[in-house]
Amino acid sequence: MFDLYIMEENMNPAEALRIVSEKIKLEKPTIQLLRNEIGKVIIGQKYMIDRLLIALFADGHVLLEGVPGLAKTLAIKTLADAINVDFSRIQFTPDLLPADVTGTLIYSQKSESFTVKKGPIFSNFVLADEINRAPAKVQSALLEAMQERQITIGDETFKLPTPFLVLATQNPIEQEGTYPLPEAQVDRFMLKVFLDYPTKEEEREIIRANVRTQGLGKANNILTIADIEKCRSLVKQVYLDEKIEQYIVDIVYATREPEKYGLGFLDPMISIGCSPRASINLALAAKAYAFLQGRGFVIPEDIREVAPDVMRHRMGLTYEAEAENLTASDIVSKIVAKIEVP
Fold this sequence. Notes:
Layout (H helix, E strand, L loop, with lengths): L12 H27 L6 H13 L3 E4 L6 H11 L4 E5 L6 H5 E6 L4 E6 L6 E5 L6 H4 L3 H6 L1 E4 L2 E4 L5 E6 L12 H4 L4 E4 L5 H12 L13 H13 L4 H12 L16 E3 L3 H17 L7 H12 L4 E2 L1 H5 L4 H11 L4
Parallel strand pairs: 1-8, 1-9, 2-5, 5-8
Antiparallel strand pairs: 3-4, 6-7, 10-11
Helix pairs in contact: 2-11, 9-11, 10-11, 11-12, 12-14
């Protein structure tokens, strides 16, 4: 069924799709301009930039994981520079307190009352840098903000600004002084993105850009909050066929009951299957990916493209999987390869 609430009820679905596709094509130069601005600072890393844009236009949060020096923090800061939004950076450390993130009540002796001091979470873009360096109670301070888009301080609840995006980074190679994210916390992220090293050619360009006299460039403000809202509205209108919906359900269900899909050998490897939040985010991320490609409809390749980033952090693996050196990404790849494409 076509979810085009802005179209007339009696409009032909094919005509509605044509109109949406034309609107999306008109936004393609804007998206390319945004990519170009980010490219002034970030060399290569197209995969990471695409995932940041998917999260931005699908109204989801993203967790970037990679070794130090892969421009995780710089990419997020550059994206914020290219859009006229409020930006705050929280450096997560073991001595951080929840109030340092969300805010707190301050007592005024003069007025003999408490006043609210809002924390850095009250921004459009929040960079949670090295999120795994803070203890669980601080990480969990983000839960309400990420899911409900609101923060409770004392007995008052405050709405967060729109758009609101948590963009977190973590370092996978250091274990000392780090605290793994709780399952409930990591499930709030639409995407978990693993980053790889740049190519040799890209690394040469990175060296040249960093050693020249003027240094790296800086992205200019080219988009407004109104532009982001317009793009998000178009993403919601991207057509998702019933067969594609069933394809998503089959992929997610295969993590819960793999034997029903001829994947019985995976049953001992998976302790917890993906939740319905995986299905929702798979559909939203696929819509945003189709939008970035300039299409008004989702195709199976869109689902296959975003499935690892949406699902890898929503599965629990057994010790047998670790013994077999199977990662969540490997399991998602096996599932996607097996499920019949509509």
